[in-house]
Amino acid sequence: MAVPRMFPCVLTVTALALTACTSTGTPSEPQPGSSVASGAIGPGGPAGDGATAVETAPPATPTPATLTPEAYRVQLDAVRGPVRDALSKVASAGSLKSLESRADDAEDALNEAASTLAALTPPAEVAAQHADFVDALRGMSAGMGDLRVAVDSRSVCTASGALASLGKSGELKELQEAADALSDVGDYPSDVVSVKARAETSRRLPNGRYLRSESRNGRGNLAINNGGSRDAVVTLLRGKKRVISVYVRKKSKFTVAGVRDGKYRVYFTTGTDWDARERSFSRSCSFQRFEDSFPFKTTYTATQVRWQNWRITLHAIKGGNAQTGDVNPDDFPS
C-alpha cells in the first residue's frame, strides 16, 4: 500500500487562512488574499465575484374586473343549466348503478359551477349573496359525494332514498336558500335546484302481500321465516320467469301455498322503506339468492299422492344447510 504523503501546500493554505483572519482594514472592502462570496447558492451554483442576488416578488395575480349585472346574469345562466340537469337525473335514476353514476356526475357539475363563479367579481350589491351561493354550491357538491358513497355501500338504494338523504343532511335546503337570496337582489338566474327533498319514510307492506303471483294451483308449500332485522321480498323464478314475489316482514313468517311443480331459484332482498314505484327498498338494501334450487314435484301412485314442501330461513341459523350468495342489484329479478 502506498504511504500517504504530506504536501507543503497544506501548510500554505493554512497560513493564508490565518492571514485572512487577522487582517485589518475597512470591513466593507475585500482584503488582498481573502475571498468574498455574495449572492445565493442555488441550482446554478454559488454566486461570486461580486455578484449580488436580488429577491423579486412574484407577479401579482390580476383581480378580475367587476362584472356588470348583465354580464353576471350571463355567467349565472351558463352554470345554471348543467346543475339543474344533473340534479334532475339523480332524482330520476332507475337503478342503483345509474344512481351512483348520476350522483358522481352531479358532484362534478356542482363543483365546476362553484369554481367558475368563485373566479368572478360580481356586482358590488350582490357580493355577499354571491359568496354564500358559491359556498352552498360547494356544500352541495360535498353532499353529492357523500350520497355517492352511501349508494355504493347500499345505505341509499333508490332515487327517493337519495332525495330523502339530501333532505336530511340539509345541503339541498341551504343551496335553495342561497339561490333565492341571490335571485331576490336583482332577478338573477340562480335557480339551480330542480328537485325537491323528501322526508325520510319507512313504508311497509302487510306481511304476506303478494307483489306478483301466477295461479297457485299446485300442492307444494314454501314456508318462509324472516327472523332478520329488516323486511324482505322473496321472489321465485321457474326457469327465467318470475312467477311469485311476496313481502315478508321482519321477525315474521309466511307460507306460499299452491306452488306448482317445477324447479325454482329463490331470491330475496331485504331493507327499509319499500318503494313500490322502484320495486325496491330505498335504504339499507341487500340482494341475495339461495345457491341451490328447490324442486317441487308431485308423484301419483295407485293409492296415494306425494309432493314436496320446503322451508327456508332468511337469516343465519345454527345447523342451517342452505348457502346464500350476494347478487348484483342489476341482475336481481324485480
From TrEMBL:
Residues 49-66 have a biased composition (Low complexity). PROSITE patterns: PROKAR_LIPOPROTEIN. Keywords: Signal. Residues 1-17 form the signal peptide. The keyword Signal applies. Residues 24-66 are annotated as: Disordered. This is Uncharacterized protein. It comes from Thermocatellispora tengchongensis.
